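A quick aside before the break. I want you to see a complete sequence-to-structure record at least once, exactly as it would be stored in a machine-readable document. Don't worry about memorizing anything.
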Amino acid sequence: MKRNDLILIIVILVLTFGFVIYSGFRQSRRVVDHPMAVVTVDGVEYGRYPLDEDRNERIELENGAYNVLTISNGEAYISEASCRDQICVHHFHTHYAGDTIVCLPNKVVVEIVGGEEDDIDAATH
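That is the input. The structure line, written in tokens, reads:
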């Protein structure tokens, strides 16, 4: 084995080791201490509500429609809405980063930011 071959092997091992360390560090920082439910109405931010505080927030729209965001036990869900289909009300309780609850008739979107990420890429029910 020549000197350059040994140098190449050492460089590859150092880069691999560095990548493994970086990946482990990044994985350990996936959980943010303060997950929030961010509510937007028709694309405009309406409010931010921490998931660690239990509350009921009535989201009033200009046309008289409304949604009630409930945060309980670290989970967010729509407990009441004025829309006909009530799909947002029947949506599962959510707390993972990136999860959303959408009420299309009222143009209300609740997105969870921060907090723990879901290990499952997709689910149907």
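Two observations worth writing down. The chain has a mean pLDDT of 87. The longest helix spans residues 3-28. We'll return to this after the break.
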